[in-house]
Each structure stands twice: as C-alpha cells, then as structure tokens.
Amino acid sequence: MGFKKGFLWGGATAANQVEGGYNTAGRGLANVDVVPIGVDRFPIITGQMKHFNFDSQHFYPAKEAIDMYHRYKEDIALFAEMGFTTYRLSIAWSRIFPMGDEKEPNEEGLQYYEDLFKECHKYGIEPLVTITHFDCPMHLVEKYGAWRSREMIGFYEKFCDVIFRRYKGLVKYWLTFNEINMILHAPFMGAGLFFEEWENQEQVKYQAAHHELIASAVATRIAHKVDPENQIGCMLAAGQYYAYTCKPEDVFKALEADRENYFFIDVQSRGEYPAYALKKLEREGVTIQMEDSDLELLKEHTVDFISFSYYSSRVASSDSKINETTAENIFASVKNPYLEESEWGWQIDPLGLRITMNSLNDRYQKPLFIVENGLGAIDEPDENGYVVDDYRIEYLSAHLKAMKDAVNLDGVDLMGYTSWGCIDLVSAGTGEMTKRYGFIYVDRDDQGNGTLTRSKKKSFNWYKKVIKTNGEDLTNK
After folding, report:
1. This prediction's pTM
2. Domain count across the chain
3. Percent of the chain whose pLDDT exceeds 70
4. Torsion angle of C-alpha atoms 154, 158, 163, 165, degrees rounded to 10
5. What secondary structure letter does DSSP report for 325?
6. Catalytic residue of the set 284, 372, 380, 394
7. Distances (CA, A) of 317 to 258, 288, 310, 354
8. Domain span at 66
9. What span, in angstroms and rounded, lies between the C-alpha atoms of 88 and 86?
10. 196 labelled catalytic
11. What's the pLDDT at 342?
12. CATH code for the domain of 348
C-alpha cells in the first residue's frame, strides 16, 4: 500500500542555507548570516561566544550559500521534474523587515517571495512556508536582546500580519518556528540569544521560549482570521529517546529527555503548560514572567497539525560513567550499540521514525507532517557532476518504509513528507557544504569555491519514481 490521495511529497530547505544574497534588495543582517564555519561555530551558535558581525578571520557560508536567491526558477523547475507537490521553504525575516522594528515592510523582499510562490504554483507545487527558520534580524539581537525581550512578540506579529495578507491564496500551509526546541540547544542560532557571564541561562532560555510560544499563538490567530483556509503547524526537532538499559532509572531518564522537547509542542498543540514542565522550572528556580492574557491566548489558538524533523533516535542513561556520545550533532546523546552511523556520527534508525511517529500520534491526536529527514554524506561526483548515491537511496527507502508502516499498520494520520536538503545546501550544524543531503548536486565546497552548477544525482530519478507511485515503489532500480 502507498499513501492517501493528495499526500504531499516534496523537499525542504531554509532561506539562510540556500538563498545567499545577504545584502541584496534591501535585506538586513540576520543572526544566521554572522555564524562562520570552523571551530568557533559551535560556541557562537550556543550563545557562549559573542560574534555579531563579519570579520576577516572567518568564512561565512550563508552570505552566498547556493545562491538560490538568483537561481530559484532553475531549482523549482528541477523540483517539478521530480514531481514535487509541495516545497518547504522559509522566509528570511530581514528581507521583509531589514531591521525588524520598522513601521513598513521592504517591498522588494515581499515581491521576491510572491514571485517565488507563483513560480511554485506554475508547476502545481504547494508552498509549505516556515515563518522563522532560525532567522532573527541582528538589529533586534543588538537592541532588544532578541527573544529574551517581550517586544519581540509585537515585531513578529507585524511580520506575520504582513505576510499572511500579502500571500493569501498563494500559501495555505505555514509553520511558525522551525525546531522550536532548538532554543535549548543552540540558542543563538535558534533564537538570537547570546548570554552574558552573569546571566542565568536557563531563565533566559525559558523566558525567550515563552515569548516564542505566545508569538506562535498570535500567528495562529492572525492566520485563521486572514484566511480560514490557512493551516498552521508547529515544528519539533524529534527523535525518540530510548533507555540505555531496562534499569528503571534509565527509563525515567529517557522519559525526562523526551519531555524536555515535547514541552514546546505540548503548549502549542494542547494550549497549556504541562504540570511536569511547571514543576521542572520550579525546581530549577526559573520564573517565567507572563501577562494576564497569555494563558488564554495559548489555550484558544493551538496549531492545526504537528510537523517535525527526524534524523535519528537518541539514548539516555542515568549512569554518568556511560559517556560515549554521538558526534557532530547538536542533539548528541549516548551511543546506541545496535545502530550504524553516518559519516558525521548520526546514528541510523528507520524503525525509530515509526516509533517517533506513533509517540507523537498517541500524544497529540493531530495530523503529522514529516518536514525534514535525510542523510548527510560525502558525495563524489564524476566529471559531469553525477553522483551514484546508493547510500542515500538506501537510507531514505528504509525510512519511507517505516513511515508507510506507521500509516498503514498503526493508523498514523500523515499529511506529507519533505526530505531535508532536496538540493545540496549549507549545513546548519557545521556550516559545511561537503555534508550533502540533496537529490541535486551543487558545485560548491566548504570555503565557497565552485561554479554553483546544479546536476542530478542517481537519487533524483529514484525519488521521482517514489513520488510517481505515491510511495509504493521504493526499490533502487
């Protein structure tokens, strides 16, 4: 069996990882622009190292990325050739409001995305738009402290009101914040947060998270008011935690680790702070400042569907002596001895996707949408740019099989699937181009060298067949 009629097939990218054109057509500087590749990247994205502008000692891959800003027509035509019925992309906030706090939006930025969405519709591709995929105008970071400030809600509200009205009829599927739980793990990249030495970092992170949760509810309210056809989703960096052993302490550790991430979606989907989260914050001495109307707003404006990324499951142990962790991953966890891993140390677990889908389905009883899943790998192109990426096909085929089982055997309600990095792009975690995910090869290396020429990999025609058969044929033939 395949998937239901109208199942949305496609791929996913983020503005800061593909567009480039960081200073084009009035666009302002964003937090994601000033994050370099190299050893300083991790301390910067985690808010431990202050780095608010460019310097001559670093290379900044997002400045040009893969130049989709100028090449989107070529890229969307390739997506259409694969048969995409949806394309997940994000809007760069600083293209619409370059500083973030202006009274009027930047018309050139608005027109750019209007043209892009119309190009999608020309091929019958439905845009799935992430409103904020880690982007935060640097002016808002420097003047207001980014999401630590409640004033951010008003700036985000204006941003949302402008784009919902401008793109009414062009976009009906929206996500408010990409991987909203990333604020706990990479707070500068995820929310523009840099910490001073004297600050209580947990207090800052959870207060900022509250502001984002309120902003998400505000966005949901506006979207439904502007166009009742709009469907709004939240977005979680997902991956079920397994207990390292059946020792009860390990089982509880895994439950706690899952809850740390589910907390955000509990609020966005159920409309209230869960009791376990309130108790955790109380134990840690974190006091969230709220306004009287906040809880009512959260309750009345919950999301329509749950979207999530899945790359790997995770493991939790209560034993501090068990310290071998997965590498090169913002969500590093204890290693699972039963799983193989990618070249970047991400453990490969297709069944974990089915387990994660069931957990989310059981917890929320709302439609699910897998908006990121893929394998980062080193590709070796021939002289024509062709890559025989059987390893990618094998990874995706196994995950799509698990996805089918969750739908057909477990009854999970799934709206669609967009593989991550359908075209090679800059890695969010490492800033590398050599960590490739795409069906389309882009001639560019980690230091910005290359022609940016696009070429089809073997997986391009494989995914084309998968979409054409609505997921029935996953074979590598």
Report:
1. 0.97
2. 1
3. 98
4. 120
5. B
6. 372
7. 13, 29, 21, 22
8. 8-468
9. 7
10. no
11. 87
12. 3.20.20.80
